């Protein structure tokens, strides 16, 4: 009787370990997806920052040009 209880516990322990490995595989997949989304959002953020800086530079040049035109005498 003790042997049947022991073998049942061994089988239960092995099945629990197998369930945990499936859980680890799922968490690895979620981790990979999270890293991918983080990288994509970082690239988009850097692109937006670059674009905003370029727009600010163009606007500064445009303002200086308008000031130069309005201050010039015809």
Q: Care to describe what's here?
A:
- The radius of gyration is 32 Å and the shape is rod-shaped.
- It has 1 helix and no strands.
- It starts with a helix and ends with a helix.
- With 74 residues, it is mainly alpha-helical.
Structural class: mainly alpha
Helix content: over 70%
Percent of sequence in beta strands: under 5%
Unreliable runs, pLDDT <50, ≥5 residues? Answer: none
Order of helices and strands: H
Q: Which of globular, elongated, flat, extended, rod-shaped describes the shape?
A: rod-shaped
Largest sheet: none
**Average pLDDT figure:** 84
How many alpha or pi helices? 1
User: Over all CA atoms, what is the radius of gyration?
Assistant: 32 Å
Number of strands: 0
Taking the alpha carbons of the first and last residues, their distance comes to: 111 Å
Would you kindly provide a brief summary of this structure?
The chain is mainly alpha-helical and about 70 residues long. The chain contains 1 helix and no strands.
What descriptive keywords fit this protein?
single chain, 74 residues, 1 helix, 0% strand
Could you give the topology of this structure?
Elements lengths: L1 H70 L3
């Amino acid at each position: 009787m003790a042997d049947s209880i022991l073998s049942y516990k061994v089988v239960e322990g092995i099945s629990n370990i197998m369930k945990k490995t499936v859980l680890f595989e799922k968490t690895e997949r979620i981790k990979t997806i999270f890293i991918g989304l983080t990288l994509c959002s970082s690239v988009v953020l850097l692109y937006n920052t670059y674009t905003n800086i370029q727009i600010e530079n163009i606007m500064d040049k445009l303002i200086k040009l308008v000031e130069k035109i309005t201050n010039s005498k015809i």
